[in-house]
Amino acid sequence: MHRRTILAGSGLLAMPGILRAQEITQTIRLVVPNAPGGTSDILARLIAAPLAKALGQSVVVENRTGAGGNIGADYVAKSRPDGSTMLLLDVSVLATNPALFPKLPFDTQRDLAPVSMLIYAPYILAVSNALPVQDAASLVAYAKANPGKLNAANAGTGTLSHIVALSLANAWGTEMTSVPYRGGAPALLALVSGEASLTMAGATQSQAYVVNGQMRGIAVSGPHRLPAVPNLPTFAELGWPEPDAGTWQGLLVQGATPPALVARIERELQAVLAEPAVKARIAELGGEVRTDGAAAFRDRLAQQTDSYGRIIRTNNIQVDQ
Length: 321
Prior knowledge:
Blueprint: H1 2-21, E1 28-32, H2 39-55, E2 59-63, H3 70-77, E3 85-90, H4 91-100, H5 108-111, E4 112-127, H6 136-145, E5 151-154, H7 160-172, E6 177-180, H8 184-193, E7 198-202, H9 203-211, E8 216-220, H10 235-238, E9 246-254, H11 259-274, H12 276-284, E10 288-289, H13 294-314
Parallel strand pairs: 1-2, 1-3, 5-6, 5-7
Antiparallel strand pairs: 3-9, 4-7, 4-8, 4-9, 4-10
Helix pairs in contact: 2-11, 4-13
């Protein structure tokens, strides 16, 4: 009886320490390693206010661009492990960079701790309205008849938008001319202006352009057609490669952040993304909430690092360093 009382009392005394270990005590920097207007930036600004309310601290979105996302990722990797600096980005950035940059300034597995996946948004393959194609069949026929003539705008050399377009060209038995931009938003603007003839971008960025008639949608990746553009077939329906491609957004913190704090941030993120207004807005943008947790995030990152790394090495994709 007496021993039980001591143990219970010890547990009660330990609780304030446990609770403090789950607290963030200063303004939160939500780092996006891409330019404003991209999927990561849109999502960060969407969740900033409700996340601030949930964690009890102001949340400031910071765009730290450059080096294929490595500048922003390195900033978080070298931050204090107190949860006050977070990284929000497309998981493919972390998956492809080890193959693109042999000497990264940080170790993804050691220096960054996965917290949770956030959303998935399929890619929309779209073409310029000036291009004389109307659907997937005519696009493939045009590409085969004009090898190298399609200027495929992407979010940067080695990004998934580049890799998927390359995979499609290989499957079609032709070539495209890759035109890298500093992010998905500038690539889309290049397509609208007619500077580029084709691009691949997350639906969160590109769906509105297709719906408004500023570019012509051809197909979508992912498991199903998008309600806003139901006439666009999926890659799987067309027998095209990379049917699961898209923007898988996730959030990470510094690798040595206490597990209790990581778990709390994960719980709060799940609650934020379950809020009807947030969930509805993500759906309007063509995305789906995917809060599978840290373990699933870690597994997907490992799988994509392996599969996309093989594509990069096979095609000898290199970036200027």
